[in-house]
Amino acid sequence: MFLKAFEVMPSSERVSQALVGKFGVFWRYMPGTVGIVVAGIVTMILGSALRGEWTLLLVFALKQLGIKVPSSISVQEEPSFLESVGLKDVHWFILINIASSTVIYFILGGLMQWLYYIRQRAEPEKWKCQPNRFLSREDELHEVILGTSNMMLGAGIFGILSCYVSNGGYTTVYYDPAEFGWTYFIMSIPLLFFYQDAAAYYYHRMLHWPFFYKNFHKWHHRYKAPTAFSATAMHPVEFLVFQFFIVIPAFVVPINAGVFVGILLYLYYYGMKDHSGINRPALWPWQPPTLFHDDHHKYFHVNFGFNSLIFDKFHNTIRKTDRYYSEDVFGGKGRDLSHEEKERLAKEKRGY
């Protein structure tokens, strides 16, 4: 019933065409390498904007570069309550973050949609993980509405955090790489990556326990052939817990701002790619191809990791072609195949 109120809205294809279709002539004549770089930057920015965190990362990045974050001068003799808790001008941070995240979300998300789902829609076998499956109009609309709602929720929360950090609020982030020694600085890069990957795997796997799946995570698995807009289309509680695990290191352990921002941009970039539905090989030896997470949406309770295969290999939860998976088969190990299922799945060539 809720979605019917939005039926007057144009489809995502027409919105994307209206927003970015005129840039097609520039893309057509853009050198291949430049196009890849531009697409990568677009994906990274979109990933951070989808969660509303981009202003927090910007504040950390500016401080890392030694650029003072501007703040207005108070004309009051006594600081207000908001100033006393490090939230001076918080309303501007929230407003700017929500407005800019919304613009980035629709413009860059529309660009990605246009490049593949419109420009190459007639040839899905050349680029799509599931070439014979597209989201219905209702599911497209649902993911945009739900994703936008979470994006605005995140933008509000991280607008507050951005304000707090820019006003000198407490964090454990440091800016001189040598402050804790170069060994600590270098080791913090793989350790932070390992923490983020472990937190994502175990939290995600918990969401596939029957109770949490049926009451929370099932919202996200409505999109069996995900697009970039699916990345934040999930239950708000699930979204907030994910964000908590991502940003908490900046408040509990010493971490260099450049390392923190760099790792998060990496996570956001691949979070967008993995949900894009676009079949791309792994660029790094530890990073799974996009097909890996697309199969998670296709087969449900399997392939729980995001940025490495470490934990899926350790727990034996990588999808196997000789096992049957469905929404009703929990546990991450699948079940034995029937003879008919073996014949059907033998025709699929989906490996990692």
Structural commentary:
Its main location: membrane. GO terms for molecular function: C-4 methylsterol oxidase activity; iron ion binding. With 352 residues, the protein is mainly α. It has one domain. Helices cover 56% and strands 2% of the residues. The chain is built from 15 helices and 4 strands. Strands 1-2 form a two-stranded parallel sheet. Strands 3-4 form a two-stranded antiparallel ribbon. The longest helix has 30 residues. The protein is globular. The relative contact order is 0.12.
Q: How would you summarize what this structure contains?
A:
The protein contains 15 helices and four strands. By secondary structure, the protein is mainly alpha-helical.
Question: How is the secondary structure organized here?
Answer:
Elements: H1 12-20, H2 24-28, H3 32-50, H4 54-64, H5 81-84, H6 90-118, H7 137-166, E1 173-174, H8 182-206, H9 210-215, H10 236-247, H11 249-252, E2 255-256, H12 257-275, H13 290-299, H14 310-315, E3 323-324, E4 335-336, H15 339-346
Parallel strand pairs: 1-2
Antiparallel strand pairs: 3-4
Helix pairs in contact: 1-6, 3-6, 3-12, 4-7, 4-12, 6-7, 7-10, 12-13
